[in-house]
TrEMBL record:
Transmembrane segments: none
Example GO BP: translation
Residue ranges with Low complexity bias: 42-56
Region (Disordered): 42-62, 130-176
Gene Ontology CC annotations of this record: ribonucleoprotein complex; ribosome
Name the UniProt record assigns to this protein: Large ribosomal subunit protein uL4m
Molecular-function annotations in GO: structural constituent of ribosome
Protein's UniProt keywords contain Ribosomal protein: yes
InterPro entries from the UniProt entry: Ribosomal_uL4 (IPR002136), Ribosomal_uL4-like (IPR013005), Ribosomal_uL4_dom_sf (IPR023574)
Amino acid sequence: MSFLAATRRAVRPSFASCSRALATEAAAPLAGAADAQAAPVASSSTSAPAPHNSPAFDPESTVGDAFVHVPLRTFYPKPPASPVAPSTEPMVVPLPAPLFNVPARPSLLHKIVTAHLSCLRAGTASTKNRAEVSFSGKKMRPQKGTGRARLGDRGSPMLKGGGRAFGPRPKGPEGWQRKINRKEEQLGLRVSLSEKWRSGNLVVVDKLGLDEPRTRVLSQKLASRGWTDALFVTAAATGADEGVQARAAFELAVGNIPNVALVTDVKDLTVWDIVKRRSVVVELEAVDEVIERVDPYGPFVDQYEFDPEEEFEFDEAELEGEAEAALADAVAAEEAQLPAEARV
């Protein structure tokens, strides 16, 4: 069972029920992990609700737990009105702590971000040296007798408008390439997402979509939730035409809003995309893909197990029939090559 399937069953209004349900569903990949010690969130009708960009719990209390709890919000479609009073306890999605509660590594993030920005450079910066400026090569004044400093031609770097000494020269994009190891990049993704979770800026939404591609409507909706500077991570739109159209409308509308970015393919998610924005909003359908992106060979990803008995299962009767047919074809071919009088 995928981690997302286990998460769907684990989404409950309390932390304790989430941990118990997910521990039952994902016991195999989480063997040896520490037991979850999450406690229900104390709620009061008089207390103000937590803001959208703040954690619904104390991150320090989850150190050593098997899961971290990310708030789950409803974005699209709008939930129908219910006569029953909504629960004051927040909906949460438990995520594996080894991936989303990693200690801070500022030096690693700096290394990855600088390498990423360096790779984006075109390498077209260019200046003219003293041989390329449009001036004569004649000596400006005599070497001696004027009482002034000696000068050469008009293109000297000491003069205004002269050539540039040791200026940048074009070296193309290849000249700015900086290599980052794959494991370093994956660790950087885990560190950056963990920092977003600790600051309360990591949120999971059930679905992203819009009825119509209206930028003003979406901008107001994001502003009301505090997502004016956010990164949205979505999964590929599948299913009915209505879901595809709603996703397309959301993509069109979000492209016109400044400081809001959208990643439709989790494989393209980078550390720079995460640290550049204040909030990270992940669609529920993309949770499994994000986990696979940050740790593709870890225990939280469903790995294909090769079953030799299933792979090489064959029918003996079918093989015997094929062998007899091949033998009959070979005999017929040999008889066709014999003279007519020698044939039986």
